[in-house]
Design a protein that fits this description.
Bound molecules: ligand FNR
Shape: globular
Pfam families: FMN_dh
Protein name: Peroxisomal (S)-2-hydroxy-acid oxidase
Keywords: Flavoprotein, FMN, Oxidoreductase
Number of helices: 15
Strand content: 5-15%
Radius of gyration: 22 Å
Cofactor: FMN
Structural class: alpha/beta
InterPro entries: Aldolase_TIM, Alpha-hydoxy_acid_DH_FMN, FMN-dep_DH, FMN_HAD, FMN_hydac_DH_AS
Number of strands: 14
Length: about 450
């Protein structure tokens, strides 16, 4: 598939074809009129690059550090919730991809894999924990402790979500997690090996399959295939493949992964966003946030967090110089300029802003030139959210790696074509506001 997917927009279009509508809508949506969502991408086009030439750009060093951790490029993965709706491997696939691309991953508090599972999937990878501050502070503290113990290297505390932004499609879809992250999997068993597999009950299939065992499911026909949600498009091409190849393979088994869908870091159904009672006539996640997340959070809570953990703390979701200065007073270790992918307050500025302090940014980064512009405006590194979900939906960890490699290659080219041999040479002089492109 990846041969035909050569840029982030290709992955986005393909993911839209593959994902159930309510999942794509949840991943894609911005708040309210989605003005900021459009502007997050458009804002980059309001800057033009002014390249320097004749500088021997045969070698370009893109490595940098984020919170003291070396990464091979200034492009890291932002926290996005509930990744196992995109692919059964979810966050563990993303972690593996980050390890193979030698870059860092921020894990959402609302992940569908646990803090520990993600650490195990990619030991040695640079991982940070995104934190929501819950009303229950002991619970909040336990998330931080678990991240510390599992080798995460920093806490990104999200400060822009005392309530959830109103994402209209999620309201229309009454968004909630599917009851099961059930997916159909096709196992191709080579001739003669089925018996052995039945006995051993360990197969060279990904771990989520083993949840089915024992007993190893008997061969089922296509008619018995359950899809959740019904008619999941992802499976359609596989069904066809099965029909075409029937002559060649002796046993083909469709298996169901019955892993319950939940935010994996929590024990009670209420906190795991899997309550049977449902979440009313609204976006289920909006109801969840009102119930569980603390709307009273203030700067003192950042002081509490700083005191509670030895990990560096970054505030995620700062948009004004005033708040950036305030954050520094509270001794934060970094600032992530972010409007939460335009999913919180609609009408806030796009995040391609000029920073007076050392900052990271996210929001609307879709191309290597976007990364270069963000760096030229003062960001130390950027984080990408949706592009990773599109890669995950299309091809699991391979898709995430491909998306990250596409961005790496594009940034490399952009640096070379502007005459920069390392990130140190990127500065504001590369950019001018485009007069020609109107808002
Ligand atoms: C997010 N984001 C987010 N942020 C956060 O702090 N905790 C979270 O759980 C999530 N979950 C989440 C889910 C989805 C589907 C999206 C799209 C975004 C925001 C995320 O970390 C980041 O700020 C934006 O995604 C960056 O914008 P782009 O790259 O998606 O345009």
């Amino acid at each position: 598939m990846s041969d035909s997917l050569v840029c982030v927009s290709d992955y986005e279009r393909q993911a839209q074809r593959l994902l159930p509508k309510s999942v794509f809508d949840y991943y894609f949506s911005g708040a309210d009129e989605q003005q900021t969502l459009r502007d997050n991408v458009a804002a980059f086009a309001r800057w033009c690059l002014y390249p320097r030439v004749l500088r021997d750009v045969s070698s370009v060093d893109m490595s940098t550090t984020v919170l003291g951790q070396r990464v091979s490029m200034p492009i890291c993965v932002a926290a996005t919730a509930m990744q196992r709706m995109a692919h059964p491997d979810g966050e563990t696939a993303t972690a593996r991809a980050c390890l193979s691309c030698d870059t860092g991953m921020m894990l959402s508090s609302w992940a569908t894999s646990t803090i520990e599972q993600v650490a195990e999937a990619a030991p040695g990878a640079v991982r940070w924990m995104q934190l929501y501050i819950y009303k229950d502070r002991a619970l909040t503290q336990s998330l931080v402790r678990r991240a510390e113990e599992a080798g995460y290297k920093g806490i990104f505390v999200t400060v822009d979500t005392p309530y959830l932004g109103r994402r209209r499609d999620d309201v229309r879809n009454r968004f909630k997690l599917p009851s099961h992250l059930s997916k159909a999997f096709l196992l191709r068993i080579p001739r003669g090996e089925l018996r052995q597999l039945e006995i051993q009950k360990s197969i060279t299939a990904p771990p989520y399959i083993s949840a089915l065992l024992p007993p190893f499911p008997s061969a089922v026909t296509q008619h018995e295939l359950h899809l959740n949600p019904p008619g999941d498009l992802r499976s359609a091409p596989q069904i066809k493949a099965q029909q075409r190849q029937q002559g060649a393979i002796e046993h083909e088994l469709w298996c169901l992964d019955k892993t319950p869908a939940q935010m994996a870091n929590f024990e009670t159904p209420d906190l795991a966003f899997s309550s049977k009672e449902g979440y009313g006539e609204d976006s289920g996640l909006a109801v969840y946030v009102t119930q569980a997340i603390d709307a009273t959070v203030k700067w003192d809570d950042i002081a509490w967090l700083k005191k509670m953990t030895f990990l560096p703390v970054v505030v995620k979701g700062v948009l004004t110089a005033e708040d950036a200065k305030e954050a520094l007073k509270y001794g934060v270790d970094g600032i992530l300029v972010s409007n939460h992918g335009a999913r919180q307050l609609d009408g806030v500025p796009a995040t391609a802003v000029e920073g007076k302090v050392d900052v990271f940014m996210d929001g609307g980064v879709r191309k290597g030139t976007d990364v270069l512009k963000a760096l030229a405006l003062g960001a130390k590194a950027v984080f990408v959210g949706r592009p990773v979900l599109w890669g995950l939906a299309c091809e699991g960890d391979k898709g995430v790696s491909n998306v990250l490699e596409i961005l790496r290659e594009e940034l490399h080219r952009a640096l070379a074509l502007t005459g920069c041999r390392s990130l140190k040479e990127v500065n504001r002089s590369l950019l001018r506001r485009s007069e020609l492109i109107s808002r």
